[in-house]
Every structure is written in C-alpha cells, then in structure tokens.
Amino acid sequence: MKTTYWSVDNDVNSKKNYPQIVKAAELIKKNEVVAFPTETVYGLGANATSDEAVAKIFAAKGRPADNPLIVHIATFQQLKQIAVDISDTAMKLMHTFWPGPLTLIFNKKPGTVSRLVTAGLNTVAVRMPDHPLAMALIRESGHPIAAPSANKSGKPSPTTAKHVQDDLDGIVAGIVDGGPAGVGVESTVVDCTGSPPVILRPGGISKEDIEAVIGPVEEDPSIASSVSKPKSPGMKYRHYAPDAPLYLADGEQQWIQQLIDEKMAAGLKVGILAPQETASFYKADVVVPCGSKADPKSSAQTLYQALRSFENSGVDIIFSEVFPRTGVGAAIMNRLEKAASHRWMKQHMKDQD
Ligand code: TXA
Ligand code: MG
Hints:
Order of helices and strands: EHEEHEHEHEEHEHEEEHEHEHEHEHEHE
Distance between the termini: 48 Å
Number of helices: 12
Oligomer: single chain
Shape: globular
Low-confidence stretches: none
Strand content: 15-25%
Structural class: alpha/beta
Bound molecules: threonylcarbamoyladenylate, magnesium ion
Helix content: 25-40%
C-alpha cells in the first residue's frame, strides 16, 4: 500500500491545513487507518465503530488481539454514546484533565464500539486528546477514533511522524505529520469502574495531580512489581524496547562506567542512556542524553526518541541510569523497566528487590 503523507501545523482551520485534514478524515470514513499526532505520542487511528477498520489497526501493528484500544473522542456526547455508569469522580477528572493525557475506563455501552476495540472486555477506555489536529480529525471524520500508539507492537511509541514512517510506511493508508508530540509518554490510564479509581498505567498526568482533585487513588500492583498480573492487558507485554538488551543501572557513575568498561573490554558495543547532567561523564560507544534530572517533563519528551536512537547505532547492550520517579517520572521509570524487562544492576546489594 502507498502511504499518503500530509504535513499540517496546529492552525487547523487555515486554507493550507483544513483540506488536508478533510482528506485524512475521508480515509477514516472509508475505514482506512491513519496515523496522527496527539499531545502524548502519535496514534494509529481508525473508525472505532467498524470491525473492518479496527482489524486493520491490529494487523498494521502486529498487535495481539487481547490488547484493547483507547477510543479518542472530541465531545462529551460521544462519551455518552459509548460508555455508561459515569461516576461523579470520573466527571471531576474529566472536567479537570480533558482534553489531556488521561484515559478513563468505563463500563461499555453495548452496540456502538467495535468488539475488537475492547478485546472482549465489558469496559471501554476513552480519552479526549489535547491536540488541535487530533480533535479536528475526530470531528471531521464524524466517528470516535480507536487509536493505539502508532508503533510496531513492542517498539517504543512514536513521538514524531518520522518514527511512524520508520515503523509503518507502506503499511498504513496515511500519516499526518504535525511535528513532535509534546508530552512524550502515553496517557495515564485510570479504571473508573470501581471506587476508588485505580491507576492501571502511569502516564502524562501524575498520581499526585489526580489525588489533588479526587483524593487517594489506588495503583495496580503490577506497576510496582513485575510479579503481579496487570489489570490493563497491554501492560503485560514487553514494550517500549530497543533491539539491544537494556539494563537499568542503579549506582554511582563510576560504578556504571565500570560496567560499561567490562562490556567494552569483552568486545561489545555499549550504549548508555543518562540525564544531560551526567551524560558527558560516560565513555561508551554511544552516549544518549535524555532530558534533565531536574525536569522530568524534559526527560519524558525525549525518552522514546532516545530509545529509538540506539536502534541504528549497532550497540549490543544498553545501560540506563535511574531517573527520578516524581511527577511524570513515574511513567518514565515504568517504561524503562518494561524496556529493560525488569533487569536491574544494583551497586548496593541491600537495595536488591
Ligand atoms: O497517550 C496514549 O494513550 C496513546 C495516544 C495515541 O492516545 N495511546 C496509547 O494506546 O498509548 P496503547 O494502545 O498503546 O495503550 C492503551 C493501553 C493498553 O495498555 C491497553 O491494554 C489499555 O490501554 N486498555 C485499553 N482498553 C482497556 C480496558 N478496557 N481495560 C483496561 N485497559 C485497557
Ligand atoms: Mg502502545
């Protein structure tokens, strides 16, 4: 399939941009798959009400059929068409954080959304993206849009149209290039079907932000421990991973440098991911700085770009420093732990978990 590309800026109503959005929306209406920017990462969108369209998303990504998709909406009316039992707590969250990087799980209203979207569950994940292009595409297509991240299954999520092209050129009908995504990691997924709500996936909105609005929430135990079975089906897969094995290295820089030296002495090509404050300390084959320790948001923005940059560098092994877990840092460490398949190297054995 030949992929159509559109380059669009945020001025969605301009003479240059609007016709391109209309064309992208036409493909959605024809049950084709189109990648588009959101404020978190690029999404791979299709008409959420069509089995035919949604099946194409799973095929393009190579995504397991038991991993449900998030439905992207532009109006509260669309929410009412697909979800029931919307609690006051959920209303508070939506009023505070929508449009934005927060996905809420509701009981599903039967009959609207394709059963493929929800992978056989009775619940549906919904979010309203804070991105003018995404919102214009949903409005113009006239449908809620099911969209996972627009990467091949298992790869880091795309934060630019080039990343999408690298994974899906020739496989999807269209790619809307709207420049780099802002947040850089995916939305926070919160199950609102019970009380209190439960965070299933840390993301762009922090637990602290959520608790400031609705009080204490729970966290799915699988986020803290690789042993528990996650409630969010997608969280069980190895994810966000570059080709070479990644190890989280928890210790002083000299000690991490020793790990690097040992591997280099053994003839391996070694990569290191570190915040910009310490990146220049390391001597390795490939050193990739990733935002500032003092500003987790900056690390979130560059995390996936950083992981992808190891891809063509030919490294055999990657070490990553540990990033602070405050705010969006919880999502950064969650993704790094997954990318590392929970492989830790710890300088101080007492910390071993
Ligand atoms: O920021 C984002 O959320 C991006 C952009 C494109 O919106 N989307 C995204 O989608 O990250 P995806 O498919 O990569 O991740 C969706 C997550 C998966 O972990 C999936 O298992 C979970 O949401 N999920 C979807 N529906 C669910 C449901 N009914 N119950 C529990 N988890 C659900
Ligand atoms: Mg994904």
